[in-house]
Amino acid sequence: MRRTARLAVGLLLVSVLTACGLDDGPADSPPVPIPSNVPRDVRYTSADEVVAALVAAGLECKVQYRGELPRNGGSNARCTFEDNGRTIENEISVYNTEVIGEDDIGDALASRRDPPHGQTLVAGGNWFVRVVVGDTTRYAQKVATALRGALLPPFRDLPDIPEKPRYADLSALADALDRAVGCAQRKESDGVLRCRTNAWKPGFKCAKPDSDYDVTLFRYGTVAEREEELLMKLAEENVMWRITTAGNWLMVFRHTETRDKAARGMSAAAVDAVEPILEDKIYLDSPCNPDRRP
Length: 294
Known about the structure:
The chain is of the alpha+beta class. Helix content is 26%, strand content 24%.
């Protein structure tokens, strides 16, 4: 999945794709398919139609630029909207699929998400939008909801993550965690399970008054779904994530030491947040860091 895009196109398309920013990679790599979670039936005929959909959803996106791609390849635009006093810029690309095929669009999506670009995209059947705010998912989620598209976080260089063990349900995952570091006072809701490890104690300085747990468990239907969710979390670069993951699950911990012990006990990988690489950092409300000494 992490590779530079390759465009195997005829001479007619070369000029179109170059102008679209699609001709970014070596010609000997196989094409990258459009991700399976991208809705193929959500299509727009032009960049202006995407802008209209944003406005209709309550995001007053003001157009800064419009352009037409060569040889009727499609259109692009830039527009901005305000969110809590911040200007959010959106780069919109809409493609004519009679000229530009799915393989080419899949390559374009992959090349933009791949390092060193590391862009966050919202995509549908023949279009995508880059939400240019540090390439986090915070604002892109609003665009995805407005356009009924899929949110695609940047690819990251991840450690080797074992494909096993896998668990049939959250209860079995919690039992495995219990054997490693404890998992008491379990609370399951909205598809996740929270519990207390052996490290939890009353008055834990990072806990809110109603937070009586220190680990959150997530289980997914497939390994691909788990990887996409992991990338989604790491896209919020200024949040101190302490994650352990393998197979079809991941867990988020409050303590690094407890996370590391769980990773060893469950034959899983430990993953930390990636340091921001952009100068324009987006500072979110980060969770308390219990590892930081005063």
